[in-house]
């Protein structure tokens, strides 16, 4: 009897707590923070245009949710976790920010999400690559929306080996990030019946890639994979272009490369490179329509990160409206239960570890002859289904995944 | 008879002047202290702690540049070593109280500083700067490659813990006053060092090294000691920073950070006690304010411009220029 009483009281208590949390939108205002690199290396990937994307979403949503005003604050994280950490702390502790979007450098993202977890606010990460964000660093307070290194370093090799590129040479940045990608690529290539004939590690960062590219070229491998990122990748591609790697019949596979990088390199240099992307502006009428509006507002075509910021902001606001709450757990739960169908993703869903899984695409950079304009850069070669693209939950080290 | 009277008068006058100057200084220090004590009630404590950590870092750096005339371009190595050591210990040794973690970080930086000093002190000027830069890059490489630092992701989620096992440092105000006490102690230490006979020798070395040698001082030994003290304080700043932010990252070890501390010291005024503190406050504030506003795309060019302007037009920095102005017009 007492047992039942206890159970009943606790059930009532927890029901009260849940309804208490769902009560309504705090301060009658939904406040969003946009944190990204506004001035450094990742400026073009997310940067000020990402803020524009977020503001576009708010405008399209109508500027308010159920009578509550939507506000945006933004800051430059300067790719420094210190700056990010103090900014996010101030936002959530003093400025009543409910949700934070953007976030690019992995150290920035992890620092920010730890603070969000402490304060029980929500983060939607669109810019970061590191797959550890939803693996060992997962929290119940963030969602990783657009892509991750797992998807990039698994997607491209699988597709290329299946298309017939059997022998591989890997050029690896000599630090943990590069090593992890090299291991991923090797595993995938071998699992699909290919062979890694050689690999070479270059210091991080490296301005001159000639000797590395020459060795890769001399290996005679079908495919040269670039297991590095940022300036290292673009430097390697520039050098490869000078030595005529793709013209010589070898395929260049860049694991971490974005539309903004390819745009900066130009089709002359980047032609023929294969890469994985989460989204491309010129895929269908829906993406083109949105990109035209984005172009009008910013003067540039959106990267997958920009599209992800728009889409995730929209999903977030929908969830706030449907649940009539800006409590992070209520909103996140709603977002997990409702698949995402918009111009960014079809049937995208958010898993319990916070990973948003959706189809990824293998793209090939167009040749200058094929390209009809400065932003006409990719041919989408094939679709990588969501289930293959992301790390399966069975391999997850995330504390939220129950085995 | 007459002459002796005059002499005592002069002595008295000098003494009085010194006393009034001393009084003025005490009043200024008192005002600053009160400001520091009430600051967290007005401003955001984490931000203030960041300023204090960087101010300590700059004070440590200034001991070398401003008072010994040595331009080290590798001080980020000590900041990072302190931070990573403290972070690693606090994360991995259960029950370790925070002050011991910070002490251990400081100790590591001190040892590293001794190593740096032994190797770099044999060269002067630009060569000294280059040797320290090269050594700091080695340290950076070590942190990039080691798995315990978390590489690019950084070391995250460092527990703040409890001071002496008693005071909960997760409370921002508690932590602020702890950091403030440590900072003031270090500031006083540097003040004493600079004013001591040891500091006079350092000054002599700065002004004319061959003359100091000819006077019979073992110059290298003095330089090494100054370098080690500076490294230890820089390490302490790094250790406290990792506790404040609960993270240590590669940014701390990057040469940008070594450059930033030079900027702070020069803008504030090298060779003045308060200069680095003012410089750190200024730079951290400019960075923060600009990052929020419409000029956020221009933070680096603006800081660069300030640096150029300081070097060309205001060579003694903010505090140095104010002192000059006061001396000219107010006495």
Automatic annotation (TrEMBL), chain A:
Stored Gene3D superfamilies: 3.40.50.2300
Segments forming domain Leucine-binding protein: 30-366
Annotated keywords: Signal
UniProt cross-references to InterPro entries, sorted A to Z: BCAA_transport (IPR051010), Leu-bd (IPR028081), Peripla_BP_I (IPR028082)
Endpoints of the signal sequence: 1-23
Pfam families: Peripla_BP_6
Transmembrane segments annotated in the record for this chain: none
Family according to the record: Belongs to the leucine-binding protein family.
Protein's name in the database: Branched-chain amino acid ABC transporter substrate-binding protein
Species of provenance: Marinobacter santoriniensis NKSG1
Automatic annotation (TrEMBL), chain B:
Membrane topology: Multi-pass membrane protein
Record has Transit peptide as a keyword: no
Superkingdom of origin: Bacteria
CDD domains: TM_PBP1_LivM_like (cd06581)
One Gene Ontology MF term: branched-chain amino acid transmembrane transporter activity
Location relative to the cell: Cell inner membrane
GO cellular component: plasma membrane
Chief localization: membrane
Transmembrane segments: 26-47, 54-80, 100-119, 126-144, 173-190, 224-249, 261-286, 298-318
Keywords, ordered alphabetically: Cell membrane, Membrane, Transmembrane, Transmembrane helix
Keyword rRNA-binding: no
Annotated protein name in UniProt: ABC transporter permease
Organism expressing this protein natively: Marinobacter santoriniensis NKSG1
